[in-house]
TrEMBL record:
Residues 150-269 form the FAD/NAD(P)-binding domain. The keyword DNA damage does not apply. InterPro entries: BLH_phosphatase-like, FAD/NAD-bd_sf, FAD/NAD-binding_dom, Prot-tyrosine_phosphatase-like, Sulphide_quinone_reductase. This is TIGR01244 family protein. It comes from Acinetobacter venetianus (strain ATCC 31012 / DSM 23050 / BCRC 14357 / CCUG 45561 / CIP 110063 / KCTC 2702 / LMG 19082 / RAG-1). It comes from the Bacteria. Its cofactor is FAD. SUPFAM superfamilies: (Phosphotyrosine protein) phosphatases II, FAD/NAD(P)-binding domain.
Length: 551
């Protein structure tokens, strides 16, 4: 028997026996629902035997047998009634638990979001994606006048708007929809500069309505699930949207809850992060007021959005303290879950010069796992080979980068790899199973850096490939893994890292003009003055500067 907890009041399990009842009772379970018909297996105890053992432990037993693979709507309704009236916690079981959790899902679809329900089940080892069409049929009012588009784009961030604009630049009459509930669009690469006191936060924000092309249908809703076999996206409330081609680019999810105690102290007690719009100004507040003490900067497990951002915050902070003449009074520590300072070795020597310049202490294989902001204490898991331990340290300022993952509705789908990222061909960015689905940006599993610069290169390639697919052609443009990370090593100078798959250097400019392996003023001017308008007025408008997709 393996008990799996779905929520605070409901468990599922595989086949139980009389001998398991004592353990079940010890868990506090008050009701058991048996969904496996008697006599299904030669080694299966019958319902009476289990009931007798349950009665001895004061547990109520209900019998709702379901034939494997044949869960009916009537049985789901009966399960719902049992679930509602029974004493909790409640355990439902069958041979593997699949029938039980299927009954639960069908009975709870009106009470909780579809994506969370699918994700809960998937986390327990049950794939309920096949229920999506059936759940939709339970809401027949949604089946009338289903909107259909040539291209549906999930996500209105940098990647989504750029793809839409690139598509329209090639085929102005294309019928496109962008699905995104957000009203505000952020220029996230600018938050490092906000945290360094260089940009005002207002410079990094615009309304979504001002950026989405007028020809595009903007559906202000959240996606609940995918039904790729029927070429449908399901919105919250089980409203379907049909498509000929689907582009998935909703970004990623910052898992602030992945570090114990972090949520309770963010934005106060000296704990900050440039990974949130409202917290980046607090970073600058802490930096500009700090005269002495201990400053800690952390980096979580990969992959993350802009792998250089955790150390960018450190460099800009240290540069300010040095120019204010207080650096000698501040102890700087960089705790990195990974084993190297930067993933592309060619840029490490230039970065190490600044590590020495700022007298920063590097701690590799150290993962932040817990924070106590009031006591100003932080705990790190230290990994050495197969061994691990936990250390504790104090701080006066703590810049945190949270662990990151694909959004819940993505991880709950059957479009992802084992790690939860959308599975694509790394060169064409076409889905590995469904040829009419493409993905780009932070959500897909190609082994490239998750940066806005990568999305800038990917968007035209995906646009070309989507149009090629719609024409029936299998000649696709190729993505080389390009990503860029402008490492702000001091105010006024940047090490401009540009690279592709395998760490191959892919500089955009000749070395005599801009040497990316050295800190340069030219790279700083690019970051400060050229990249923001290039983002707002170039990339998001379909102007494909420095990108030339080739079939």
């Amino acid at each position: 028997m393996e008990l799996k907890r779905v929520n605070q009041e409901f468990f599922v399990s595989d086949q139980i026996s009389q001998q398991d009842i004592a353990e079940i009772a010890a868990k506090g379970i008050r009701t058991i629902i048996c969904n496996r018909p008697d006599g299904e297996g030669a080694d299966q105890p019958n319902i009476i035997e289990i009931q007798e053992a349950a009665i001895q432990h004061g547990i109520q037993l209900e019998y709702l047998p379901v034939v494997s693979g044949r869960v009916t709507d009537e049985q789901a309704f009966e399960f719902k009634e049992l679930y509602q009236k029974s004493q909790k916690p409640l355990l439902a079981f069958c041979r593997s638990g699949t029938r039980s959790i299927t009954l639960w899902a069908l009975s709870q679809v009106a009470e909780q979001s579809l994506d969370q329900m699918l994700l809960q089940a998937k986390a327990l080892g049950y794939d309920l994606q096949g229920l999506v069409p059936r759940i939709l049929k339970q809401n027949p009012n949604q089946l009338n006048n289903i909107p259909t588009f040539s291209v549906v784009i999930v996500g209105g961030g940098a990647a989504g708007i750029s793809v839409a604009s690139s598509l329209l630049s090639r085929q102005p009459n294309l019928d496109i929809a962008i699905i995104d509930p957000a009203e505000i669009h952020y220029y996230q690469p600018g938050w490092t500069m906000v945290g360094g006191g260089i940009f005002p936060p207002e410079k990094t924000v615009r309304t979504m309505a001002s950026l989405i092309p007028k020809q595009v249908n903007w559906i202000k809703a959240a996606v609940a699930a995918f039904d790729p076999d029927n070429k449908q996206v399901l919105l919250e409330g089980c409203k379907p949207i049909n498509y000929e081609a689907l582009v998935i680019c909703p970004g990623l999810k910052l898992n602030w809850h992945g570090i114990e105690g972090l949520v309770e102290t963010l934005g106060k007690n000296g704990v900050t992060s440039n990974y949130r719009y409202d917290l980046a100004p607090y970073t600058w507040q802490l930096v500009s007021s700090m005269k002495q003490g201990k400053a800690i900067f952390t980096q979580p497990p990969m992959p993350i959005k802009c792998a250089g951002a955790p150390q960018k915050a450190m460099y800009l902070s240290a540069d300010h303290w040095q120019k204010q003449g207080v650096l000698q009074n501040i102890n700087i520590d960089f705790y990195n879950t990974g084993g190297v300072l930067f993933g592309v070795q060619a840029y490490v020597p230039a970065l190490m010069e600044y590590i020495k310049r700022y007298n920063a202490n590097l701690h590799f294989n150290h993962q932040l796992i817990k924070v106590d902001g009031v006591q100003k204490r932080a705990w790190f898991k230290v990994t050495e080979g197969e061994n691990s331990s936990v250390i504790e340290t104090d701080f006066d300022m703590l810049h945190v980068v949270p662990p990151q993952q694909a959004p819940d509705f993505i991880r709950a789908s059957n479009l992802v790899d084992a790690a939860g990222w959308v599975s694509v061909d790394q060169h064409t960015l076409q889905h590995t199973k469904y040829p009419y689905i493409f993905a780009l940006g932070d959500v897909m599993n190609a082994p490239n850096a998750k940066t806005a610069a990568a999305a800038r290169k990917q968007a035209p390639i995906v646009a070309v490939n989507v149009l090629q697919y719609l024409k029936g052609s299998n000649q696709f443009a190729q993505y080389d893994g390009y990503g860029s990370c402008p490492l702000t090593v001091e105010r006024g100078k940047i090490v401009l890292a540009e690279f592709g798959y395998g760490g191959k250097l892919l500089p955009s400019f000749p070395k005599w003009f801009l040497d990316g392996q050295k800190p340069t003023r030219m790279a700083w001017l690019l970051k400060e003055q050229i990249l923001p308008p290039m983002y707002w007025d170039g990339m998001l408008k379909g102007h494909e500067w420095l990108v030339k997709p080739k079939l």
